[in-house]
């Protein structure tokens, strides 16, 4: 009964520990959500969306209100106005300079609407849309690059932890052989130097194990930095030890890097159009309503200086204005020529990116094919080395071979286990590289299980 209870508790603890650990897909999602660089890219995309909304709102009329109160001399019939939204109306000068101070006041509403801009507004909106698309492309590229960096760090961590396990197994084999050697020496079946050699090799294997642990911890620190979250238990996917059945695919030109380059060219063209349309006229409709208060009498002088604090005259106005930049053509033409050069440069960069991606795709294809072939051979390599070691160990126990042959077989098994881990890690990295240069990280995830 007690044994059953203990077994049940252990199973519950093991299940809880398994649930507490996060494996690759969960870790990748956490990293994509929490990594500060990607958070910044998302906010930049949101800011670009707000810029498009701002450019679209330019069609709405503007309405500005103002109020003024002055205390000044009365040498002008209207009193004094500060620069602002009130249209001043000048009047005849007073017969002579007056140094008496009086109050004056004014309030106004000024409306301005540009319903017709001859394409200026639309060109600005279009440029802001391409700017938003460019920011979105940069966000997609940043996500892809981060996913590749994180996955590579995870594969390095997995390989390092697997190396720790392999080093521990190798150390345990040396420990077992050391115990066996002591027994054989005590029974006079083996010389004492065998025990000394096994002890030396056992200590060396413990040192290798410590080095493997140090390497694994340093790679784990790099993985946590890319994770963007410190308090997450990192689990190792067992599927990484298996060779998947991968169907190598060809992809289209949907890489975020190429899309970003193409959008940069479109944005440069949009800016050129905006510069060209800046030479077009602009129609503005103005409307104003303002009130004025002044203590100055129409024949000059005043009764009470504070009379100017109350409004005494009201004015309204409505009109339109057509503005034509007549002499701006010469300067703007230089900017258009500059923009033409930038467009050609952007097109050249786009071609360079396309050529570089074509080369990378060819290299990734060959790398993946050869890595898959090597990964398929790795299990047979380990199996053959293990069989050889077991046979040599049995022959050594029977006194049929010397110590050097036994040690060579064990070293070959340790090398086979280490090389097998490296081959599997390189195979997954080749698959990751193939997915990265084609801009489709989902392809890697589909082949993970």
UniProtKB/TrEMBL annotation:
Predominant subcellular localization, coarse grouping: membrane
InterPro entries: OMP_efflux, TolC-like
Pfam assignment, any one: OEP
Subcellular location per the Swiss-Prot or TrEMBL entry: Cell outer membrane
Signal peptide: 1-20
Gene3D superfamilies cross-referenced by the UniProt entry: Outer membrane efflux proteins (OEP)
Keyword Membrane carried by entry: yes
Keyword Hydrolase in record: no
Keywords: Cell outer membrane, Membrane, Signal, Transmembrane, Transmembrane beta strand, Transport
Family label: Belongs to the outer membrane factor (OMF) (TC 1.B.17) family.
PANTHER family according to UniProt: OUTER MEMBRANE PROTEIN TOLC
Protein name from the UniProt record: TolC family protein
Taxonomic source organism: Belliella filtrata
């Amino acid at each position: 009964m007690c044994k059953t209870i203990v077994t049940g508790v252990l199973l519950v603890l093991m299940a809880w520990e398994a649930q507490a650990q996060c494996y690759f897909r969960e870790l990748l999602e956490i990293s994509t959500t929490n990594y500060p660089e990607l958070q910044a890219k998302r906010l930049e995309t949101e800011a670009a969306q707000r810029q498009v909304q701002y450019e679209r709102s330019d069609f709405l009329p503007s309405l500005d209100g103002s109020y003024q109160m002055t205390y000044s001399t009365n040498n002008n019939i209207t009193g004094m106005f500060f620069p602002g939204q009130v249209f001043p109306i000048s009047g005849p000068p007073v017969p002579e300079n007056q140094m008496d101070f009086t109050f004056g006041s004014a309030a106004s509403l000024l409306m301005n609407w540009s319903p017709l801009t001859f394409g200026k507004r639309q060109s600005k909106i279009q440029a802001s849309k391409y700017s938003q698309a460019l920011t979105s492309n940069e966000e997609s590229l940043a996500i892809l690059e981060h996913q590749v960096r994180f996955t590579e760090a995870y594969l390095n961590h997995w390989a390092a932890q697997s190396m720790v396990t392999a080093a521990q197994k190798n150390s345990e084999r040396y420990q077992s052989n050391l115990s066996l050697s002591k027994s054989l020496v005590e029974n006079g079946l083996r010389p004492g130097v065998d025990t000394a050699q096994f002890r030396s090799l056992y200590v060396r294997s413990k040192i290798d194990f410590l080095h493997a642990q140090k390497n694994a911890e340093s790679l784990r620190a790099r993985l946590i930095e890319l994770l963007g979250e410190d308090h997450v238990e990192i689990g190792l996917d067992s599927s990484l030890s298996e060779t998947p059945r991968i169907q190598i695919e060809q992809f289209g030109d949907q890489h975020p890097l190429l899309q970003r380059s193409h959008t940069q060219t479109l944005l440069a063209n949009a800016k050129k159009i905006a510069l060209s349309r800046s030479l077009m006229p602009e129609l503005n409709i103005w409307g104003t309503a303002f009130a004025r208060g002044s203590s100055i009498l129409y024949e000059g002088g005043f009764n009470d200086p504070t009379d100017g604090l109350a409004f005494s005259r009201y004015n309204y106005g409505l009109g339109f204005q057509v503005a034509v930049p007549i002499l701006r053509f010469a300067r703007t033409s230089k900017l258009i020529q500059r923009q033409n050069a930038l467009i050609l440069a952007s097109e050249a960069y786009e071609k360079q990116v396309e050529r570089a991606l074509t080369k990378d795709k060819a290299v990734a294809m060959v790398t993946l094919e050869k890595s898959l072939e090597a990964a398929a051979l790795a299990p047979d390599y380990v199996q053959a080395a293990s069989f050889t070691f077991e046979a040599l160990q049995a022959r050594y126990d029977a006194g049929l071979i010397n110590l050097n042959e036994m040690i060579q077989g064990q070293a070959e098994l340790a090398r086979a286990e280490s090389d097998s881990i490296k081959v599997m890690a390189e195979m997954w990295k080749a698959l990751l590289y193939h997915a990265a240069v084609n801009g489709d990280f989902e392809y890697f995830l589909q082949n993970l299980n």
